[in-house]
Amino acid sequence: MNRDASRAEAGVVLLSGGLDSTTLLAYAIDAGFLPHAMTFRYGQRHAVEIEAAQRVARAFGVRDHVIVDIDLRTFGGSALTSDAAIPKDRPRDDISRGIPITYVPARNTIFLSFALAWAEVLDARDIFIGVNAVDYSGYPDCRPEYIAAYQRMANLATRGAVEGTLPMRIRAPLIDLTKRQIIELGMRLGVDYGMTSSCYDPTPSGAGCGRCDACRLRLDAFAAAGASDPAPYA
Question: At 173, which CATH number?
Answer without folding.
Answer: 3.40.50.620
